[in-house]
Specification:
Elements (H helix, E strand, L loop, with lengths): L2 E7 L2 E10 L2 E10 L2 H19 L5 E2 L6 E2 L6 H4 L7
Antiparallel strand pairs: 1-2, 2-3, 4-5
Length: 86
């Protein structure tokens, strides 16, 4: 799951994405805006999307007496720009 936050830096407000990568926790700037009032709703929306996208990944499919991770291919629209419609 990615967690988004805002941080004031050099007269702008950076919107940061923080997640656990193969090498540990990673924090990366997504974009920057002019003030906190603009950043707050963006960060809120990104965190809501991230939390909704995470829920299916943590479920199991137990139909037909089989146990398998929930399919994650539907997340490609969020994570792979080429998988999205134009």
């Amino acid at each position: 799951m990615t967690i988004y936050s805002r941080h004031a830096s050099r007269g702008k407000v950076q919107i940061l994405a923080t997640y656990r990568g193969p090498g540990g926790v990673v924090s990366s700037t997504v974009t920057s805006v002019d003030n906190m009032a603009l950043a707050a709703p963006i960060v809120d929306a990104l965190n809501r999307i991230s939390s909704y996208a995470t829920v299916p990944v943590s479920m199991y499919d137990e139909r037909g007496e089989r146990l398998a991770h929930y399919p994650t291919t539907h997340l490609a629209a969020l994570t792979d720009r080429n998988a999205r419609g134009s």
